[in-house]
């Protein structure tokens, strides 16, 4: 069984200190992190989706993972030299400014694709279609649903499982139907939508901090 690196525990400890109501789901928060850590260790990517405020959270998560959150993520020396060899001036600037990424795709952000699929095929399959197109075995799908019952998230989770993609559910207290199919479900201990969302943000910020330290924090 995978365990949490001791140097990463400080992030969970701080989260629980600031949000004591999350103490009861500590193990699930860690389990969700470990699924993502294993994915990135093996060269996979994170696919994220949600509706409404959870759609905004999906883009927020991708923004934290695709560039620095707190820790510098400079490109490797070899790649920097390749950039400079192609164009000494622009390459030097790119080598200085580019930041390494943990690949994360918010499935809420592709308007032409999503509106075409909704119009031509099925509104409730819009995330499932993208999972089928973008997803590969070893990836992770993070489905955000305050109720745990969002039909388009459930459909995407089914496709993810069929592709060999692990599913993390980020939900409210009930967990809903998503809790039955997810490999890990993290149930924010609230029932009111906005209150659930207010707890989702510090949870995924904690995940992003931990992932960044794991892959870019050095020794």
Fold and architecture overview:
The model has no long low-confidence stretch (mean pLDDT 97). The protein is α/β, with parallel strands linked by helices. Helix 3 packs parallel to helix 10 and helix 7 runs parallel beside helix 8 (151-162). 38% of the residues are buried. A five-stranded parallel β-sheet has the order 2-1-3-4-5, sandwiched between helices. The protein is 54% helix and 10% strand. It has helices at 9-18, 26-41, 53-66, 77-86, 88-97, 111-120, 126-134, 151-162, 178-181, 193-216; strands spanning 46-49, 104-106, 140-144, 166-171, 184-187. Helix 9 links the parallel strand 4 and strand 5 (184-187). It contains ten helices and five strands. It is globular and about 55 Å long.
Explain the layout of strands and helices:
Elements: H1 9-18, H2 26-41, E1 46-49, H3 53-66, H4 77-86, H5 88-97, E2 104-106, H6 111-120, H7 126-134, E3 140-144, H8 151-162, E4 166-171, H9 178-181, E5 184-187, H10 193-216
Parallel strand pairs: 1-2, 1-3, 3-4, 4-5
Helix pairs in contact: 2-10, 3-10, 4-5, 6-7, 7-8
Terminus-to-terminus distance: 23 Å
- Give the low-confidence spans: none
Compute the gyration radius: what is it?
A: 18 Å
> With helices defined by DSSP (H or I, 4 residues minimum), what is the helix count?
10
Largest sheet: number of strands, sense, barrel closure? 5 strands, parallel
What class do helices, strands and sheet pairing give?
alpha/beta
Bin the helical content: 40-55%
If strands are numbered along the chain, what order do they take across the biggest sheet?
A: 2-1-3-4-5
Please, what is the average pLDDT? 97
Number of strands: 5
Query: Which word captures the global form?
Result: globular
State which percent range the strand residues make up: 5-15%
Topology as H/E string? HHEHHHEHHEHEHEH
């Amino acid at each position: 069984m995978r365990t949490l690196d001791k140097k990463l525990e400080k992030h969970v400890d701080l989260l629980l200190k600031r949000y004591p109501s999350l103490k009861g789901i500590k193990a699930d928060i860690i389990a969700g992190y470990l699924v993502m850590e294993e994915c990135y260790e093996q060269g996979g990517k994170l696919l994220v989706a949600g509706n409404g405020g959870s759609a905004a959270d999906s883009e927020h998560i991708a923004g934290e993972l695709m560039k620095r959150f707190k820790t510098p993520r400079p490109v490797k020396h070899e790649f920097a030299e390749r950039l400079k060899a192609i164009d000494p001036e622009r390459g030097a600037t790119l080598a200085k400014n580019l930041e390494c990424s943990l690949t994360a795709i918010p499935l809420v952000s592709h308007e032409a694709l999503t509106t075409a699929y909704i119009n031509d095929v099925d509104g409730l399959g819009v995330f499932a279609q993208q999972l089928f197109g973008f997803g590969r075995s070893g990836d992770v799908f993070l489905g955000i649903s305050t109720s745990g019952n969002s039909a388009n998230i459930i459909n995407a989770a089914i496709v993810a499982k069929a592709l060999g993609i692990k599913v993390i559910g980020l939900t409210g207290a009930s967990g809903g139907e998503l809790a039955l199919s997810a490999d890990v479900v993290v149930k924010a201990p609230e029932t009111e939508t906005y209150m659930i969302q207010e707890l989702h943000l510090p949870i995924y910020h904690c995940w992003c901090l931990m992932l960044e330290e794991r892959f870019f924090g050095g020794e």
